[in-house]
Predict the 3D structure of the following.
Amino acid sequence: FAMSAIADPLVRLLFEPRWYDAIQLIQIICLGMTFRSMSWPIASLMKAQGRFRTHMLVVGGSLLFFFPLTILGTVLGSVVGLTIAVSVFYTFATIVEFAFALKRPRRLLVDFRDVFLSPLVAGLLAVAVACAAGYLLVPRTGLEDVPLYIVQCVVIGTVGAIVYILGIRQLSPDVFHETIQRIRKLLPGS
């Protein structure tokens, strides 16, 4: 979510105007990769369980949906359609992989809520507040382009991180406190 939120000012800061059309594509693919990044621990879980064959079948089987979906996205919407198709694929592929990893189809919705819902809600809330701060408040400062984009990147990143941490603290207090304990153990003199 954070990369999607910061893509606009970051691309405008680092690249020439001919690359500005890529901003929308970066934002779409970053949203799709939100779920994909959640699937990496799922793949590790299956491998740790020694379920290499199951993992291979799930990943291989997903290819049966990847190619038709990307072709459909390209035909219907060109590059934007392809990007949306890839993002949709990764979202659903992660959910399917998650279902196979837990081996508890009756509890899938409960497990999905426990694993995905808090980070997604906190992430959406953080991005909404960060974008409001970065895009609605910052442009009113009268800055030139380059300083404006730098300030937007800093504001979006900082506000987003703070709101996300506060969101996780409220939605998943046990995860929040466990993370704090792990960080404290890593600090010198803890």
About this structure: The helical segments are 2-14, 22-48, 52-102, 108-137, 145-171, 173-186. Residues 56 and 90 are 16 Å apart (CA to CA). The mean pLDDT is 86. The two ends are 32 Å apart (CA to CA).
